[in-house]
Write a structure and sequence with these properties.
The complex is a heterodimer of chains A (about 260) and B (about 425). Chain A is mainly α. Chain A is about 85% helix and about 0% strand. The chains are: A mainly alpha (about 260), B mainly beta (about 425).
Chain lengths: ~260, ~425
């Protein structure tokens, strides 16, 4: 598995798209740091971008890589290698190279700017951590979708739909539910609903670390108490880990059963 | 010649007064070792000078014009037995003491210093620790309360008192005081024409400054940090508020300024920073908001309805999560000529005024109003899309609620 991981990883690292991705994050953070007088403002803007783009790019990369390397995969399958190590190796290759682009692309400008000497180091590390989680989660989901669909168009469409659901539609349904049942106490429901979507969860965790938590008012106090406590942070991270592990397990099972 | 005689006569009249005013010293090893005794012995116009030490005194009543002062920080300890100093005469000065341990009661408002039906008093340089009420002005006029520091330890509203309280007291000057962790920092009830200048109210459980049925007061240069609400003005007319700072008033019911049934107020040149709600206004008429800065608040203005003829102009709204939440009809309220950091219109004729009107109410603020839990969706993509579509074609937000002449540049206040 490590060999395949290494091969996929270096294959991706040499590809043009990884560089484009890296340079995009690099430029984005440089521009934000130059335009924004305050570091936490820059991190806030960066958060908005990351919450949206990291899952999208993870989704597209996962699907694309599977379909592009399909012939090579079939060749590997003919060799005496365990199936799970082929697919897991490829998946980790994608996920790690994506995360690396993100970490380097954001990290270098911020280190040059002097993040280690500032008070925003905690927020920034949380941002990087959440970005890495989201990369893993969404490339895992999309890799699984690609594996389950032979038809490229169908697989691609389905993966994008999942992203769209998580990023946009979920919040829409959430909001409608809040409005429809506004006569009932909804704080627990809101808490659970925001915990169960990785994008929402990352956003809320980030918002509560930045100073806009001020405006969250009464219901915000509940969220703040939850996420601010050690227990809450542990639960939130556990959920992110579950979201990461779940597609990988599904991937493993699917790859063992699939007929090529 | 005539003037000279006049002067001689005047001096002649004054000599007896000067000779009458003596200084009585109080110290722990002196003949007079209690302040109460000194007050008893003193004649009108005398000065009582208290030397260093801790004096256990309660119920000191000053019923003649005296100056009670210490230059070495004498401590008056009330041993939690009730009121410490009561002033019932005009022209009393109290200067420099540290007053500790005022008793608390559920029946009476015990205070460190109470001024009752008096004029021309001067209360200064006191340090009051752990009081129930600290300085209480009752039907008193033309006095000065300045440079006092009041440190309370209030935790809840129902069993704590106020820092400085005025009740039916007019034309007083409240200046350079610091009030920390009381119920209300400074409280005015039925008190008119007072000036409140350069005070700091911090960490108070309820309000930094609270007005009930008080009119024509001037509030300037004060700081309100981390209180339940900075200033609450209720049922009051003709208030003037300028150059105050409201900062970090956070919480579910925390406001920079709370206006309820206020009429004809002027709110100018104030700075509101990082409050949950900067101004919460309800049932208020003819209030002018000019040259204020609203920076990084949750809600800059929350207009809860029944407001008439409020004018917001030449204010800066910078990076607030919501610039305005609005309920009710337009009622001649106007929002023209402000600078909004969220404005993204253009200015073709380069006159500094945006050519496209700005809509300060976002749909999301409307939604949050209906179900407060929705705040958790703040800054999500769905909300951005919803806000954008509402901006393009307003359906839910009042379509006349616009700034017709938004400024393109940040407004510099003169």
């Amino acid at each position: 598995m490590l060999k395949i991981l290494k091969y996929s990883f270096f294959d991706l690292i040499r590809s043009r798209w990884s560089y484009v991705y890296l340079i995009f994050y690099f430029l984005l953070s440089v521009v934000l740091l130059f335009l924004n007088p305050s570091l936490s403002k820059a991190i806030l803007t960066l958060m908005n971008v990351i919450i949206l783009l990291v899952p999208l790019i993870g989704t597209i990369f996962g699907v694309m890589y599977y379909y592009n390397s399909k012939e090579f995969t079939e060749l590997l399958l003919a060799l005496p290698i365990k199936r799970s190590s082929i697919f897991l190796g490829q998946f980790f290759g994608v996920a790690i190279s994506l995360s690396l682009s993100l970490i380097l692309g954001l990290g270098i400008p911020f280190i040059i700017y002097g993040i280690f000497n500032s008070t925003a180091i905690l927020e920034f590390s949380l941002l990087i951590l959440l970005g890495t989680f989201l990369s893993f989660i969404f490339s895992g989901i999309s890799y699984y979708i690609a594996l389950s669909n032979e038809n490229r168009i169908k697989g691609f469409g389905f993966a994008i739909l999942v992203w769209l659901f998580m990023a946009v539609i979920y919040d829409g349904i959430f909001l409608i539910a809040l409005n429809m049942f506004s006569d009932y106490p909804l704080d627990k429901f809101a808490l659970i609903a925001s915990l169960s979507n990785p994008i929402d969860l990352s956003r809320v965790m980030m918002l509560l670390k930045l100073d806009i938590s001020a405006l969250l008012g009464y219901t915000g106090a509940l969220f703040k108490n939850f996420f601010g406590s050690n227990m809450g942070s542990i639960i939130a991270f556990c959920i992110l880990v579950i979201w990461t592990v779940f597609p990988i397990l599904a991937l493993k099972i699917k790859s063992a059963k699939k007929d090529f | 010649m005539y003037k000279k005689t006049q002067l001689i006569i005047l001096i002649g009249f004054l000599i007896p007064f000067f000779s009458m005013a003596t200084t009585i010293e109080v110290c722990q090893n002196c003949e007079i070792n209690r302040i109460a005794k000194a007050i008893e012995l003193a004649k009108e116009g005398d000065t009582i000078l208290v030397k260093k030490g801790t004096y256990q005194e309660t119920g000191l009543t000053i019923d003649k014009p005296l100056t009670l002062k210490t230059e070495e920080g004498a401590i008056i300890d009330g041993q939690n037995q009730g009121e410490i100093i009561l002033i019932t005469s005009d022209g009393v000065t109290i200067d420099g003491f540290e007053i500790i341990n005022v008793g608390s009661s559920h029946l009476e408002d015990y205070s460190a210093v109470r001024i009752r039906r008096s004029e021309q008093f001067l209360i200064q340089n006191l340090i009051v620790r752990n009081p129930f009420f600290a300085i209480y002005l009752e039907k008193s006029k033309n006095g000065i309360v300045r440079n006092n520091k009041i440190y309370g330890n209030a935790k809840s509203e129902f069993n704590s008192g106020n820092g400085i309280q005025l009740w039916y007291s007019h034309e007083n000057l409240i200046e350079n005081n610091e009030v920390l962790q009381m119920r209300d920092g400074i409280y005015f009830e039925f008190s008119n024409h007072n000036t409140i200048n350069n005070n700091i109210s911090q960490n108070n459980v309820r309000y930094g400054l609270h007005f009930m049925f008080s009119h024509n007061d001037l509030i300037k240069g004060n700081s309100y940090i981390n209180n339940g609400a900075g200033i609450a003005i209720m049922f009051s007319k003709h208030m003037k508020m300028h150059h105050n700072t409201f900062q970090d008033n956070w919480g579910s019911a925390a406001y920079g300024v709370l206006l309820k049934e206020a009429v004809d107020a002027e709110i100018t040149h104030n700075t509101f920073q990082r409050n949950t709600t900067a101004i919460n206004v309800e049932g208020s008429t003819r209030i002018n908001y000019k040259h204020n800065d609203f920076i990084s608040n949750g809600w800059a203005i929350n207009s809860r309805g029944a407001n008439y003829k409020n004018i917001f102009t030449k204010n800066n709204f910078l990076n607030n999560s919501f610039d305005l939440a609005y309920k009710g009809g337009m009622n001649n309220n106007s929002f023209n000529g402000n600078y909004w950091s969220d404005y993204n219109g253009y200015d073709l004729n380069r006159d500094g005024i945006g050519d496209v009107p700005y809509r300060p109410v976002k749909l999301f603020s409307h939604l949050v109003h209906k179900s407060p839990e929705a705040i958790i969706l703040l800054r999500s993509m769905f909300i951005d899309i919803v806000d954008f579509s509402e901006k393009v074609s307003p359906v839910f937000t009042p379509d006349k609620l616009i700034d017709e002449s938004p400024s393109m540049k940040m407004i510099t206040h003169d």
